[in-house]
Amino acid sequence: MSHRLVGRNRPQQVIEALHVASESLPAAQRQARFARMAASPRRFFDATNHLYWQDVWPEWRLALFGGWPETQTWLHGDARLHSFAAVGHAGQPIRYGLTGVDRALIGDYQLDLWRLAASLVLNIREHGELSSKALDRALWALAQGYRERLDALREGQSAKGSELHNTKGPLKAFLGKVADKQHPGRALDKWTELTEQQGRRFVPQPNKLANLPVDVASRLKRLIENDYPQTLPKPVKEGDEGHFRVKDTARRLNTLGVEHYYALLEGGARGEHDDVIIEVVEQTPPPAFHLLSRADQQGWRKLFPNEALRHAAAFHALAPHADPYLGWLTLNDRVFAVRRVAGFEKRLPTHKLKSAKTYRRLAHQWGGLLAEHHVQAAAALHREPARFVEAVCRRIDGREEAFCESVAAFATRYADCVEQDYRLFTEHFMGGAS
What are 325-329's contacts with CB under 8 Å, separation 24+? Predict the structure, then answer.
């Protein structure tokens, strides 16, 4: 009689992980989630962040170019090409960079870099018509962009940032189009309507936005107006309480299994056009939390008594701008982060990229932007701001080609594994359809 070891049984590992991640979803949501995952290996990868962390957390290769306490920083936690976006807020310049910190955690810098690199491979394989040599060169450009940006910061250069005036090439062209076509009030136009009878209200949209039950809407309104302002970065000034009056609420529909609400605030006193939309997003531990030792989990809980506090710390560390609406609240024993909804978020249409040169130039920029995110975030962890940069550069110095090769090799091989897992998923959950 043979004994099959679960730890060496990849199909069972993948199937069980997908069951665990989706078992709490209603049937309709689960079907919608699986349908999106079945569209392509890249979509499957995007939706299986938990599998990635399960695979890489106990990874010996981290020690080759990192693996030290000093090479840790705040990680985005889900760094992918589609995590980058051009974001616009009223009164602020358009910025391009990583968005969202719901899965952010502290860890070795390579864990973000590897996921971004694997995302690049899967995206090119899905949409591009590049040779394997061109793909490899794009991966090298990504790793070089990361390393070269660290070297520049080590030498005292200031962060480039990602605004229209300091970008170049295809990214500059993209941001120029965004600046021409988008405006900070787009979120109000997209999600609300202005009526004579009721003023501004949310507009229900199929599969995107729905009305809340009256009892939930009432509790949420009370919490936002009374409890949430106490958690803001700056105290609410006397006389400004009306700014946080809730005019309407809605449920943001998604297939992730987390509660997600929108609230329309009164905002300024100039009329209906200065209203503010905030989002209230349930916070659960990022996937890697469950892979920590008991001692590390206890240390995590001392740092972050609840996950909304982790979210706030990560936002302050990673985000290129402050959010005066950043706070949190508790509803039905669940903790929620609260933040302002951007006027707009536009993602670069990678499915339109065909040129090997364009991919290389963008990959180099994505690598540099990730490096700047990591350096900025590391300042929140280390007393000496240059400690992270110096530590990572020391691990790479003299082995620059080996570093690029390690990133490219991991990304290519892991993308192969994702494609294999994707085929297993479609056969087991979708009846072979893909």
Answer: 325/232, 325/276, 325/278, 326/232, 326/233, 327/228, 327/229, 327/231, 327/232, 327/233, 328/228, 328/231, 328/283, 329/223, 329/224, 329/227, 329/228, 329/231, 329/280
221-243 as b/e: b if 16+ CB within 10 A:
bebbbeebbeebeeeeeeeeeeb
Residue with tokens 């992270």: 388
Q: Domain boundaries in the chain?
A: 6-182+346-429, 186-342
Q: In which region does residue 334 sit, left (phi positive, over 0), alpha (psi from -120 to 50) or beta (all else)?
A: beta
pLDDT digits (tens, 9 = 90+) for 71-130: 999 999 999 999 999 999 887 889 999 999 999 999 999 999 999 999 999 999 998 778
pTM of the model: 0.94
